[in-house]
Amino acid sequence: MRISFVIPAYNEQDYIVDCLDAIVSQKQGLSPEAAAGVEIIVVNNASTDRTADVVKAFAERHPGSGITLVDEKEKGIVRARRAGLLVAKGELIANVDADTRITRGWISRVLREFARDPKLVALSGPFIYYDAPARVRFFTRLFYFIGFGFYLINRFVFRIGSMLQGGNFVVRRDAIEKIGGYDTSLSFYGEDTDVARRLNRIGHVKFTFRLPALSSGRRLAKEGGLTTGLRYAINYAWITLFKKPFTRDYIDIRLQNNKSVVYAPMNRAKEWVIGAVIVVLVVAVFAAAAWIVYNVAVTGTVDIFR
Known about the structure:
By secondary structure, this protein is of the alpha/beta class. The chain contains eleven helices and ten strands. It has helices at about 15-30, 30-35, 50-60, 75-85, 105-115, 135-160, 175-180, 190-200, 220-225, 225-240, 270-300; strands at about 5-10, 40-45, 65-70, 90-95, 100, 120-125, 125-130, 170, 205, 215. The strands form two sheets. The chain has a seven-stranded mixed β-sheet, sandwiched between helices. The longest helix is centred in the C-terminal third of the chain and has 32 residues, at about 270-300.
């Protein structure tokens, strides 16, 4: 089974090499047959820096790496994904961001998962923000666990959607074509949820913690981890329920010095408010659960409101 990596790259000269190196390193560890089926497509998405030159230089240093550089003049991550899809030859399309590094065994796991389940149309996993503070990584993991709960409810109970992590998801080519491809009217937020929602109608869309990828936390550093998490959660719900994003605009975090990721949210007060609300909600939930358990233990019945 062939796999095509599609990597949108807008002004990513400082990150793209690590992304490509992670893929090429794993490709070299595959069997000759499997390695031959891996191609890498970098979509130079209206970059104004040296992204294209850096990719070309990397390809020259790694002959046989299967790297193709494609230009997409109209800026937008969804348009870049579509441009890569149009030239991809693989049965599987791996959508990876330019600041993402796939983890050890990522390619092998993807191939096994799709070979094991013919009805699997999309597979995804979480991000691990390697350059974010420990507290941010903690809340990110909490965010994923909460999101995973909603994913299970949406997929198996209500059957109205699923969950994919943009920048770390793989789709079957014939499946994405069957649903009409990527929706280019979506500029940023909700593009992955939209794909998950539509693919869920025709096959299995799976999210697993066993397919993590490393990514830069530069957006969280700029906007704030809690603010970003809340915004993603709201847009996930809006796309799932109303088929459109709640947030239209987004901050171009690439305008900062790419390699100097310093956690300095634009609005710290907002971060504190969101954090306080989350703590209050968590405490309230645990308090309610403890009260219910106590009453059940005392009264011997679950009818705690009598």
